Amino acid sequence: MNSRRDHIILITTFLATFTALLMWAGASLPEEPDVPGPPPGTYKVHSDDGEIEIPFVIFRDDILMLARVNGVQLRMLLDNGSLWDQLLFFGSPTIDSIGLDYDSEIQVGGSGEDDPVMSDMASDVTIRFSEIEFFGQPAITTPYSSGITSLWEGSDGQVSAAFFKHFVVDINFDEGVIRLIPPDEFTYAGEGVEIPMTPASFGSWTVPGTLEMDSGEVKQVDLMLDLGDLHALSLTTGPTYGIEVPDEALETSLGFGVQGEIKGHLGRVRSVLVGGYTFDNVLAGFQAPDGDGRTDDDAYIGFGLLSRFNVVFDYNGKRMFVEPNRRFSEPFEYNMSGMMMRPGAEGAFVVVKVYPGSPADEAGLKRGDLITHIDGEPTAGRKTWDFSPLFLEEGRTLDLGVSSGGEARVVSIVLRRMI
Question: Cβ distance 336 to 360 under 8 Å?
């Protein structure tokens, strides 16, 4: 098991990369499925008209829905990086209060540099989202000691196959509503584009895409779908596509997965073409291949790009439909201060990295400085992501309350693009 640890949260629209769980020792994840596989358990629809609509909000660049298990309200995230059958709960007093009956243990692995996590498993859980109730669901609860709960702070777990294997999943980001439609009742009536989906390894699925790199080189790629990856793109450098880190990229933490921190670079891809739609100057995470030399995860399309469409996932039909929504043309931006922070002592944020030549560096900020106020607002009782939008406007002046060596001062920084 991992020991609990402090974790860095980047102040940016992407906040952190919560990658999908790719493998569970002993779990039923086929390596190369031809179809999604049998859905877990059964369900009952409670609406009078038989329609299933589940409201959601965007929380830390993720889809968050309310659910109930044994009368306890939970905040659940939606993920499709791999279609795992189990509900995933992050161990906490809230999850303890559900009173699940665990009957086995299972090893949970995913992205990050630490070891897999031994977790508890239950085999018969009932969970309700709005107008639908799922029965006979397997569920995994990670231990407190793993530190996973703190990485997904503000949520209680994730759901995947209960939605995507039973239904066609229509996610309307403009309305903040998910519609679940039985596959045999689905007819697409939107104005978007159909894109074929292809099964890959460990329950992942891909769509075709074209990348024009910063160097001008054009690459045809299979983009793995992952709503749980908060970057627009996540690319692995290596032999499969010959992807290299751009010259102007920043070396940084890309966020955290189940097995800890993910280190790499953030840079730009000149353009991304998906389903006939083109995105320019896309921000992407670049990561070196892992120690096992895996090459099945060389290119991911994540929440940062998928959320610019109203999107329909039809796994049984091996297709998805995408239609631009109101966020389609927004620029891809990153923290323009040139510093990284994490929660520190007494409600302050501690500076853990300052990039040379950045606005933060020019203003005299140093590693170890404590940020107590941001534009007059105290950081006490707040999270780093609460202030994220303030750091994304080029030319904006931010006044930071800084404590260093027992002395307090106000530092002004003028934001500009670092990437």
Answer: no
Q: Domain 339-414 carries which CATH code? A: 2.30.42.10
Q: How far is Cα of residue 260 from the mean position of the Cα atoms in its chain? A: 14
**Greater model confidence, 33 or 378:** 378
Round to whole Å and give the CA distance between 235 and 322.
22
Asked if residues 171 and 307 have their Cβ atoms less than 8 Å apart, the reply is no
For the chain, where do the domains classified as CATH 2.40.70.10 start and end?
Answer: 23-185, 193-324
Cite the residue boundaries of each domain of the chain with CATH code 2.30.42.10: 339-414
Task: Put residue 201 in one of left, alpha, beta given phi > 0 → left and psi -120 to 50 → alpha.
Answer: beta
Answer whether 18's CB lies under 8 Å from 80's CB. no
Q: Annotate 289-349 with DSSP letters as a single string.
A: --TT---TTSEEEEHHHHTTEEEEEETTTTEEEEEE-TTTT------SSSEEEEE-GGGPE
- Top-level class of domain 193-324: mainly beta
| Calpha distance 300→323 (Å, rounded) | 19
Confidence grade of residue 298 (pLDDT, cut at 50, 70, 90): confident
Q: Which of 259, 263, 261 is nearest to 21 (CA)?
A: 259
DSSP one-letter string for 145-167: GGSHHHHTTT--EEE-HHHHTTS
C-alpha pair distances (Å), 305 with each of 29, 280, 302, 308, 418: 26, 11, 6, 6, 20
pTM: 0.88
Q: Mean pLDDT over residues 119-131, rounded?
A: 96
Single out the residue of 253, 287, 246 nearest to residue 267, CA to CA.
Answer: 246
387 in Cβ contact with 374 (< 8 Å): yes
User: Is residue 24 over pLDDT 70?
Assistant: no
Tell me what percent of the residues of the chain surpass a pLDDT of 90. Answer: 69
CATH code of domain 23-185: 2.40.70.10
DSSP structure class, residue 9:
B
Q: What pLDDT is recorded for position 5?
A: 24
Question: Where residue 110 falls among pLDDT bands split at 50, 70, 90?
Answer: low
φ and ψ of 229, to 5 deg: -95, 115
Pairing of strands 407-414, 397-404: antiparallel
| CA 403/CA 348 separation, integer angstroms | 9
